[in-house]
Design brief:
This protein is α/β, with parallel strands linked by helices. 28% of the residues lie in helices and 23% in strands. The strands form 2 sheets. A 5-stranded mixed sheet has the order 1-2-3-4-5, with helices on one face. It has a 5-stranded mixed sheet with strand order 6-7-8-9-10, with no helix packed on it. α6 runs antiparallel to α7 (193-204). The longest helix has 14 residues, at 163-176. The two termini are 25 Å apart.
C-alpha cells in the first residue's frame, strides 16, 4: 500500500487485506494530510490482500475506487479470483465495494499535480495493472504483484493466473526502463530497477519455471 502526495490531493495504491484502515487514516493524519483529500484508490489487482480495505476506506474518505475491468467482478463480488476463502482461513473478513472508475491500458489519470499512466500487465490476474509516473526525468512504476524486487517470484498458480501472459508483462515493464519500482510486497527499489526486472525475467523464463506450480 502506497500513499502518493499529489500536491495535497492524495492517491492510494491498493488498500491492504482489511482491518488496518483505522491505522492507515491515522498515518495519513500523522503525515499532516487529511484523509478527506484522498481522491482515488487504485487497485492493482483483485486479490484479497490488495482489496480488503476498499469498503471501509470509501466509507471513511469518500474516495473513488479504480481498477481494470477484467478484475472488477472479483473485487465487487469477492469471487474466486479474489482468494477470499484464503482470507477467511486467515481470520480476515471484509465487505466488498463497487469500482467507480474502470481503467484501461494506456489511460492517464491525473490527480492534482501527478499523472498516473495505467499499464495493463495481466498474468498474475487477468486485470492486473501497474501505474507509471514520471517526475524530474525519473520513471517510477507501482508494480502490484506483477513484479517484485530482487527477482522474487510471486504466486504462479492462483485462479486466473496465466504464466505466458505474465512473462510478456514482465518484458513490457522492461521496455519501459523504470528507474524505480514499488512492488506490492517486499522492498521497493529507488535506483537500478531495470536490473531487478531483468533478473525476474530470467527466472520467469528458466526451464524449471514451467514445472513449479505451488509455493512452499
Amino acid at each position: 500500500m502506497y500513499l502518493v502526495d499529489c500536491n495535497r490531493r492524495l492517491a492510494l495504491i491498493d488498500t491492504g487485506g482489511g482491518g488496518g484502515i483505522p491505522r492507515v487514516l491515522e498515518n495519513i493524519r500523522r503525515m499532516e494530510f487529511e484523509p478527506e483529500n484522498l481522491e482515488i484508490a487504485f487497485v492493482t489487482h483483485c486479490h484479497y490482500d490488495h482489496i480488503g480495505g476498499n469498503h471501509e476506506l470509501k466509507e471513511a474518505t469518500g474516495c473513488k475506487l479504480a481498477a481494470h475491468e477484467a478484475d472488477v467482478y472479483g473485487i465487487e463480488n469477492l469471487g474466486e479470483m479474489s482468494l477470499y476463502d484464503m482470507a477467511m482461513e486467515r481470520g480476515l473478513e471484509f465487505e466488498p465495494a463497487n469500482v467507480d472508475v474502470i481503467l484501461t491500458d494506456g489511460q492517464h489519470v491525473r490527480i492534482g499535480d501527478v499523472d498516473f499512466e495505467v499499464i495493463h500487465t495481466p498474468g498474475h490476474t487477468p486485470g492486473g495493472i501497474c501505474l507509471l509516473i514520471k517526475e524530474k526525468n525519473i520513471t517510477s512504476i507501482f508494480t502490484g504483484d506483477t513484479a517484485s524486487a530482487q527477482g522474487k517470484l510471486g504466486w504462479i498458480n492462483g485462479p486466473g493466473c496465466d504464466l505466458p501472459t505474465w512473462k510478456n508483462s514482465i518484458k513490457r515493464l522492461l521496455e519501459l526502463k523504470p528507474d524505480r519500482i514499488f512492488p506490492g510486497h517486499g522492498v521497493f527499489v529507488l535506483s537500478g530497477a531495470v536490473d531487478h526486472l531483468k533478473l525476474l525475467d530470467e527466472k520467469m523464463n528458466a526451464p524449471w519455471i514451467n514445472i513449479v506450480t505451488t509455493l512452499g
